[in-house]
Amino acid sequence: MSDNAAKIDLDALVAQAGGKQALRDLYPLTPLQRGIVFHSVLELEDVYVTTYSWRLVGIVDVDIYRRSWEHILERHAVLRTAFVGLDMAVPAQAVLRNVTLPFVYEDWSQVSQQEQSERFDRLRDEERARGFDLAKPPLMRLHVLKVSESEHLVLWTSHHVILDGWSNSILIQELMKTYNALSDGMPVPLPPAPAYKDYIAWLQRQDKGAAQEYWSKQLAGFHTPTQLSNTRPDEPTESIHAEHIQHFSLNLDKLQRFARSHQITLNTLTQAAWALLVSHYSGQDDIVLGVTISGRPDDLPQTEARVGLFVSTLPLRLSVPATASVATWLKDVQARQNELFTYQYSSLLDIQEWSDVTAGEPLFNTSYVFENYPAPDAEQTIEIHDVKSYDRPHYPINLMFAAGTDLAVRIIYDEQTFDGSTIARLGDHLEHLLEQIVANPAASLSSLSLLLPEEREELL
Hints:
Layout: H1 3-16, E1 23-27, H2 31-43, E2 49-57, H3 62-75, E3 81-84, E4 92-96, E5 103-107, H4 113-130, E6 140-148, E7 151-159, H5 165-183, H6 197-204, H7 208-218, E8 241-247, H8 252-261, H9 266-282, E9 286-293, E10 312-319, H10 326-342, H11 348-354, E11 366-371, E12 383-390, E13 397-403, E14 407-414, H12 420-439, H13 453-459
Parallel strand pairs: 5-6, 9-11, 11-13
Antiparallel strand pairs: 1-4, 2-7, 2-12, 3-4, 6-7, 8-14, 9-10, 13-14
Helix pairs in contact: 3-5, 9-10, 9-12
């Protein structure tokens, strides 16, 4: 591209952002952002609209709460970001100097709890369907709903192109610190926010050639995405997702001690159990799973404090050799996981091009994530309860593990592909495999049974 052509593109981008006076900064999109923008614009789906809700318990000063959000908006450039040039060869993200916070307050305290619940469900669905114009920040909206004198419901709707789950947790923590400070008439006790554009610069320094070499070798000979056999035979017409939550009876401390003793993480332990289940269900010993990682590089300063979109889902190819011992195989799974972090800057679109999978076919049909977000501060003026997220997954089955007081898994599945009883049984099989892994790490993988005791008895 000539210098003149480049200048014309830059001028057009600045114009779309509202002109130089409105513009604070301008920089490229990340590969993941480009993919999200592409699908958001062409497919017009709400799959990238995320909604969070929670209860505020205590006496809330709504004006201070709104001002706290405005402070957060001023603090983080990514919340003031517009996506411009979407009709051009090289789009960009433009940080605006000022934006107006969409903040709605309503008093629902005079209606019944049932009516409050019904209203909230309608509002959540409407907000998701409403979507966002990516060129008009902020790509987030807030509803604060008074349900009693000492309780408020908060609905926070945003676009995934600017935030991931870790960032959402950071923002909620910062919000409460800001609210406490403003309530006490004190300065907000937050250090300067590290910029998201530092991550853009980090991405541009990475070796794409090395990534291509790694992924081409890693996925060589893999041609067809791993399918779970327990799927309905008819072709799905429209994704309708349901949710199954299972709390494992396994002692969490015991699981963590087992993981430490074998020099693996709890994430790897649960991931290994999931890989074994997929191998059993698919009847294959060479599988590829979709694994979601934080995407926050260790060599980027303040990486865990940054707000933006870092998370990515990458293919994890695993061999499940029947004769290998559980302990030996767990270390191999950990090694494969570490390699993902080495090449976490890779774009999934690029990886698909570098693989042997037929163009247009997905690399995987499942996604797995171990959620490990920053813990909230204990001391708060008002308390946050019942934090929930609502999202529309990309894949027919999506597992979200979390370790709190116990180990739990949230399975979001496509009802056109799986029925509820199949998913409930899958959760039981997963827990059963995990029990066997911990009970006998010297056993061979082939000796681990999928069948629950009652299923075995029924079969016999």
